[in-house]
Structure prediction request, 439 residues.
Amino acid sequence: MPFKPFNRRKFIRASAAGTFAFQFVPSRVFGANERVAVAGIGSGGKGASDIAGANGAGADIVGLCDVDEGRAAGTFKKFPKAQRFRDFRKMLEKMGDTIDAVTVSTPDHMHFHAALHAIRMGKHVYVQKPLAHSIWEARTLAVEAAKHKVITQMGNQAHAGEPIRRAVELIRAGIVGKVKEVHTWTNRPIWPQGVTKPLPRQDIPKSMDWEQWIGPAPMREYNAGYAPFKWRGWWDFGTGALGDMGCHIMDMPFWALGLKHPVAVEAKQEGNTTESGPNRSVVTYTFPAGQYNHKMPFVWYDGGFMPEESVFEGTIVDSKNAKKFDMIIIGDKGKFLFNRNSTKWKTTPESLAEKVAPEQTIPRVKNEDQEWIDAIGGNGSAPLSGFDYSGPFTETVLLGNLAVRLGKQIEWDGPGLKATNAPEAAPLIKRDYRKGWEV
Prediction:
């Protein structure tokens, strides 16, 4: 049976009305003591903390879904009153009228299907980073979220914190002048990549529904080298080091500079295969000039690659001890070393930090969970990492993987969602889904 975002009853009701443009009222007025009812799709691993975060922000956890009951056992025990499922479609079908919102904390390849299903039912959605597995999926989720007027949040936690929000204000106030270069880096991958062929068959754990875990991806035999953790390095399931950490580390400058679509991207890499991501890579995006930046390179490094020493000239660090930071931003007036978890940033010259002290222009929140739950309950403004922002941002992050996989410079038409010099990119921009999961 194909993947269907609506149940038969709703389909018939809408058809009888003579339209396929389903009109949902995605939000409701909450009473003074009424709690937002949340269901979790992916309840073990990162899902456990995402569900706990929503509960800590005041939500009532009413439904839990996980394809591996053993991995989700801790969350099941913590919320014994929540109904349990292995298939998120069945959960939403059965509990749709009693759920206000869902968290999606699955492997990357399942983000889109789970989120799209919920959005089209008028449910508010929180999705772990990266928002989607493909560029087209990220675009589609942003469009659908706006269409159905649901409140959304992508799980790049530091976006809600003081270091990033203050740094955005500083960059926009001109702490380093107009920006000429951005360099960002990570120690990932910390799982196997550069693998050349599928892994041999192993027995499926009794607690796991492997068919459901595979979902829309091509079917393959189970191996512990895929699940529950090492899926990130496999192209069918994950998005590699860039997809894992890019939505965290690239976030501040992308936001601060008001970036949209790069016009080109190229990559050098070691170890990429048709099966899995590279052992290490350097991805260079080219962005057009904007209000806060010149036409500039925005460079990503992973797997041990770091910027050349010339990038750090004039600062108090070099490429070896710069690893306690996430990035360096270079502008007309100086350089800014930043870590998304700290306000102990460094500027060169040091006096820059003293000269620019703008007032706060960005709202401050307790954390991303509170920001999302409060907005749903009518107690706050829309989350600042909602899909209107995180959709285009995820498109850019995942575009780097397109350059890695094609092995050539990509000339990018962002609005048109296509590589103008690489028609062979189309199946990677929008992938096919396994039978039964078509959208």
